[in-house]
Amino acid sequence: MVKLLSWNVRGLNNRDKRVLLENVLRGWNCDLICLQETKLEDVELSDIRSIWGNQHVGFSVLKAIGPRGGVVV
Asked: Per-domain residue ranges for the chain?
């Protein structure tokens, strides 16, 4: 069974929110996540690895435009 998490995070620029997300992902042990409204214009592999807590991760991004949008899968 695949564990999927879809979450409207309403911004990931805040360090406290990233720590909360890291803890949720580790506790739930998800296989696939979709984060909406990240509000991130640039997303690096290092950002995803730090949130996911694993070096072996792939991702796709729809970048935010200004203060709106942004999706990471």
From this structure: 4-72
